[in-house]
């Protein structure tokens, strides 16, 4: 994908504010007593979707089959929460959302890779993801492993090759993204999950999910700040607190929906965590306890966002409320 292609997208994105519409959702709220917030920055999701649709990975006929598997998983219907968070963060700090589209796309490529590998028989052994057969069911385990590997590598090629910015800032963002997805982040959290090595109790469970889920969500915010040259911790830390709490909130709600959701709504098999004997907020605190924790986490995330952006960040607020009230 050329830089000129991203430049054309930037022109389209200048009409974001004019074209915004609040899309209504029929929401069954998983958190008792929390009123639904029906708005989601759909215009940002659409822009991410356009970018992902244009991505190609293969330059020769012999590897077109691998590209097909990668795009099969990447382009399945989704809310694109991580890349949308990146675009919304850019707007919150006064930057054009389209200016971080390469980073946003890289985030979604990495998230999709993690889903492909999570679904493998050696991991969660799931047959359905985003409403369609998992990658290994559609293309075989060998190709699915390679598709995940390819998406991870292509994410960094996209970020380092297409993202505009000061070279030092782009490298800082790439370094943070690598750290967020390595042993000190997502992959380390996955290991705690499969090996059962997370400490017992609430703090151990929180730590597991801070790494497994929260680090990539936090990177969706922090990498944008790094691209903008925000190197000072007093600037980044308030956003880090917000984004980290948002990741925990996402996981608590995910655990609730694994029990209360339906397969058509979730786009995956309901009850997978119980089937695999995993530690979740529901298994450790019960359904009502998990809902209480979600309310508390939602309030902390909103408070942290207010401190990070005292003047207000409507779209980040919408994403926060959507995560708290989502049904899939």
Break the fold down into its secondary structure elements and pairings.
Elements lengths: L2 H11 L2 H4 L22 H13 L9 H11 L6 H12 L8 H18 L9 E2 L2 E2 L1 H5 L1 H22 L4 H15 L4 H10 L5 H27 L5 H28 L2 H4 L5 H5 L4 H28 L5 H12 L3
Antiparallel strand pairs: 1-2
Task: Describe the 3D structure.
Helix 9 (167-181) packs antiparallel against helix 11 (201-227). With 328 residues, the chain is an all-alpha fold. The protein has one domain: Farnesyl Diphosphate Synthase, CATH 1.10.600.10. The protein has helices at 3-13, 16-19, 42-54, 64-74, 81-92, 101-118, 135-139, 141-162, 167-181, 186-195, 201-227, 233-260, 263-266, 272-276, 281-308, 314-325; strands at residues 128-129, 132-133. It has a two-stranded antiparallel ribbon with strand order 1-2.
**Cα shape:** globular
The total of helices stands at: 16
Oligomer: single chain
The average pLDDT score comes to 86
């Amino acid at each position: 994908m050329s830089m000129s292609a991203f430049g054309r997208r930037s022109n389209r994105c200048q009409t974001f504010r004019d074209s915004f519409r609040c899309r209504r959702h029929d929401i069954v709220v998983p958190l008792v007593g929390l009123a639904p917030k029906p708005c989601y920055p759909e215009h940002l999701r659409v822009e991410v979707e356009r970018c992902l649709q244009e991505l190609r990975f293969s330059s020769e006929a012999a590897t077109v089959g691998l590209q097909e598997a990668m795009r099969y998983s990447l382009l399945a219907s989704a809310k694109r929460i991580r890349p949308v968070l990146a675009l919304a963060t850019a707007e919150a700090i006064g930057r054009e959302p389209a200016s971080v589209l390469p980073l946003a796309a890289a985030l979604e490529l990495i998230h999709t890779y993690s889903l492909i590998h999570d679904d493998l028989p050696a991991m969660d052994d799931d047959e359905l993801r985003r409403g369609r057969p998992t990658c290994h069911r559609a293309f075989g385990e060998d190709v699915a492993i390679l598709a995940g590997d390819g998406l991870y590598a292509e994410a960094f090629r996209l970020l380092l090759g297409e993202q505009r910015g000061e070279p030092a800032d782009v490298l800082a963002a790439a370094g943070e993204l690598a750290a967020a997805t390595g042993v000190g982040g997502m992959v380390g959290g996955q290991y705690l999950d499969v090996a059962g090595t997370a400490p017992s109790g609430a703090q151990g469970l929180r730590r597991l999910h801070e790494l497994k889920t929260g680090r990539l969500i936090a990177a969706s915010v922090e990498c944008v700040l790094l691209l903008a040259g925000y190197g000072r911790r007093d600037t980044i830390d308030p956003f880090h607190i917000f984004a980290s709490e948002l990741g925990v909130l996402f996981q608590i709600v995910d655990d609730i929906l694994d029990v209360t959701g339906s397969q058509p709504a979730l786009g995956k098999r309901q009850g997978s965590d119980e089937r695999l004997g995993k530690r979740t907020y529901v298994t450790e605190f019960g359904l009502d306890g998990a809902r209480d924790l979600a309310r508390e986490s939602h309030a902390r995330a909103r408070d942290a966002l207010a401190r990070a952006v005292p003047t207000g960040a409507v779209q980040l607020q919408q994403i926060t409320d959507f995560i708290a009230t989502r049904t899939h």
